[in-house]
Amino acid sequence: MPSELGLILLPSSFLLGACVGSFINVVVYRLPRGISIVHPPSRCPHCQTRLAPKDNIPIFGWLFLGGKCRYCGAPIAWRYPGVELLTALLFLALGARFGSQLSLPSLLLLGAFVAWLLALALIDLDTETLPNPLTQSGLILGIFYHAFLSTSPPTLAQNLIASTLGMVLGIWSLSLVGVFATIVLGKEAMGGGDPKLLGMIGAWLGWRAVLITVLIASLVGVLVAGIGKLLGKSMQRIRFGPCLAIGGIGALFWGQYLTEQYLRWFYFL
After folding, report:
1. I need a surface site. Which of 17, 129, 134, 256 has the fewest CB within 10 A?
2. Is 73 buried (19+), middle (13-18) or exposed (0-12) by CB count in 10 A?
3. How many H helices and E strands in the chain?
4. At a CB cut-off of 8 Å and minimum separation 6, what does 153 contact?
5. Three-state DSSP class for 189?
6. Distance of CA 83 to CAs 33, 197, 251, 259, Å?
7. Total-model pTM
8. 3-class SS at 43?
9. Cβ atoms of 118 and 83 closer than 8 Å
10. Model confidence pLDDT, tens digit, residues 170-203
11. Which residue from 90, 79, 146 is spatially nearest to 117, judged by alpha carbons?
């Protein structure tokens, strides 16, 4: 990436990510409750006072307020600025990783993909659900992303086939695993939203990324269970949606490298 481009793109990516993270907080709070994500304007959940623009500055607004509502003094959860900072850092990483390879619209679409994954992961952590409106709209946007990248009719057909194959593999593979695990365990082992989330990831990244995503997600799940056991906490019900979201982000950034390393290792066996 040229240094001049980096001086503009990277700070802009961080600022945009912080703003998107603020909107993710709105979606995560309102969507499961059936509240419109555009109206009414942001307000304190305790005193219901409408927040001023200076109170809504991503990351820094929370710091300026000392983590408390300006009007009633109720504490504001640290997760709000945490989500904004995490999103900002991920957008910064997108700019650094793909800024020299993709056009600005393509980069913005990848940012939308990351935002969808974060929103779904947080909602699953809070409610143990993965809302259909998010998984379905994310899947459609993934197919649109591949169509947008196409430069000719043959490329369009190839990209749409790859996206559709990734979607189908994601949905059906995890659905079959869930059915098999339910039979073995004698109880429901996987929610219905997890295959849709993996199908969404496949629609964005292709079928190879589905395999990488499942591998990373499984490792994350085992790690979380292991840490929980060491801390003496019961981890009988691990939410797999956040694990898949981490796997999808990992596949986005390192999927090609991991696939190449695996094929190289397999070749030398």
Report:
1. 256
2. exposed
3. 9, 0
4. none
5. coil
6. 19, 20, 21, 30
7. 0.90
8. strand
9. yes
10. 998 888 776 666 665 566 656 778 999 999 999 9
11. 90
